[in-house]
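Incident log, support desk, overnight shift.

02:14 A customer reports that sequence design results differ from what the structure should imply. Their input is reproduced verbatim below. On-call engineer (initials T.W.) acknowledged and began investigating.
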């Protein structure tokens, strides 16, 4: 993400999260507030790979937000503008997270998704992710699946 795109990405986060029917109102409000332009810029200062965008004709059509956490990469969000869905944008963002995981010194990528998020229930397994748990009444008192994928890198080490 370019610094000049932070507001645009924060707006896209809002536009994607606000209508999600599988998130309760508290979850939607909290997640939108959490991923403000200032937060995205602060994340980028800490880890330049933490926020990525997908562009079509120089327009931001998707984003991923992740963070390095004890030699793992945690995917917080992958979002794609409705008009750009079903075109491989989410898969490309996921592949980018996996590519940068190696650069960031991580050996695993993991994420959660709401149990009724049918898009991620298809995307993650197709991309080689394993569902490792289902947690009832977890974040925001909602049910989530946890996913993981081990990252293969012959040069991997635990020094960062």
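02:41 Re-run completed on a clean worker. Output:
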């Amino acid at each position: 993400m370019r610094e000049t795109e932070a507001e645009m990405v924060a707006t896209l986060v809002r536009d994607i999260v606000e209508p999600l029917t599988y998130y309760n109102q508290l979850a939607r409000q909290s997640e939108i507030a959490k991923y403000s332009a200032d937060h995205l810029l602060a994340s980028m200062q800490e880890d330049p790979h933490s926020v990525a965008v997908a562009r079509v004709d120089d327009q931001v059509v998707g984003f991923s937000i992740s963070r390095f956490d004890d030699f793992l990469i945690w995917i917080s969000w992958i979002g794609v503008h409705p008009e750009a869905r079903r075109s491989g944008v989410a898969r490309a963002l996921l592949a980018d997270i996996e590519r940068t995981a190696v650069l960031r010194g991580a050996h695993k990528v993991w994420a959660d998704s709401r149990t009724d998020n049918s898009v991620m229930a298809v995307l993650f397994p197709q991309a080689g992710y394993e569902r490792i748990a289902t947690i009832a009444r977890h974040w925001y008192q909602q049910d989530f699946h946890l996913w993981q994928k081990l990252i293969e890198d012959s040069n991997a080490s635990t020094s960062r």
